[in-house]
Amino acid sequence: MEYYKILSIVATIVFLTPISVNAESKTIVNQNWEDAFSSSNQGKPGATKGGAARGGKCLAELSNSEVILTPILPVPSQRLTLASHPTLLAYFPSTSAERVYLRIKNHNEEYDYATILPITGQGGIIRVTLPPDAPALEKGQNYQWFLALMCQGVLKPDSPTVEGSLTRVSPKITSSEQIKAMSQLEQAQMYAEAGIWYETISILAQLRKEKSEDSNLFSIWEKVLSSVGLESLVQVELVD
After folding, report:
1. Residue 80 phi/psi, 5° resolution?
2. What are the pLDDT digits (tens) for 5-18?
3. Which residues have a Cβ under 8 Å from the Cβ of 226 and sit 6 or more positions away?
4. How far is Cα 91 from Cα 72, in angstroms, rounded to an integer?
5. Looking at CB atoms within 10 Å, which of 10, 49, 61, 190 has the fewest?
6. Residue 14: C-alpha distances to residues 21, 45, 119, 196, 197 (Å)
7. Contact between 204 and 192 (Cβ < 8 Å)
8. pLDDT in tens, the chain (240 residues)
9. How far apart (Å, rounded) are the C-alpha atoms in residues 28 and 16?
């Protein structure tokens, strides 16, 4: 696909360009974060609507008897990761569910992995990482992922569900030592400039969780989410 060629060129330039380990945070904050993943065709991410499970109030936030669960994603062509076991982010309202069903598969279902993971039930942006014992995602492959709330402890056809997609890529990295020497924020900047969404947002979410009072980090977080149409979630708490 054409964007793979563009990604390869951009990534090569990025990884060949030295980034100072001692670069001032102001430089990182003032870079064009809002342009990294923006698109003239960008609309709201493909949220999935799901009703509350029968026999109990599974979700606390209702709108016209439906709840919108939102994946934290840009347009499909930008949903790239370098990881064999990436971290997925999605907004879930408060829920009585204590577990979430995760499934990842490719288009022909040669890869089809499912597992059940615990959640706190607290409303906010949750992070779910593909477990290390799951088969690794292959480079150059496209995948679809699904997260479904297990209301009353079971999975039902009407379980509230959110879904997204990803493509694992492998840009040429010239120096892993250079990356190790960078701060987390510098790494996020590098991934953003290379168009790698999942690593960028995962790092920023972790930093936002650890340093919730850092105004510079909040500014970056706001710019990145707003650039992909998720400005309504900027103030939402990150929960595990």
Report:
1. -110, 150
2. 434 433 443 333 33
3. 34, 234
4. 7
5. 61
6. 15, 27, 37, 12, 15
7. no
8. 444 443 443 344 333 333 333 344 455 655 788 888 986 444 455 444 444 333 346 876 545 544 578 999 999 999 999 999 999 999 999 999 999 999 999 999 999 999 999 999 999 999 999 999 999 999 999 999 999 999 889 999 889 999 999 999 987 665 677 778 889 999 999 899 889 999 999 999 999 999 989 999 999 999 999 999 999 999 999 997
9. 18
CA angle 80, 240, 133 (to 5 degrees): 60
Provide the total of helices (H) and of strands (E) in the chain, helices listed first.
Answer: 7, 10
Burial of 95 (0-12, 13-18, 19+ CB in 10 A): buried
CB-based burial of residue 199 (10 Å sphere; 0-12 exposed, 13-18 middle, 19+ buried)?
buried
CA 67 to chain centre: 20
Q: Encoding tokens for residue 190?
A: 């590098």
Helix (H, G, I), strand (E, B) or coil at 119: coil
Q: How many CB atoms lie within 10 A of CB 197?
A: 24
DSSP string of 47-106?
-EEEPPPTTS--BS--BTTBEEEEE----GGG-EE--SS-EEEEEE--BS--EEEEEEEE
pLDDT tens for each residue of 134-146: 999 999 999 999 9
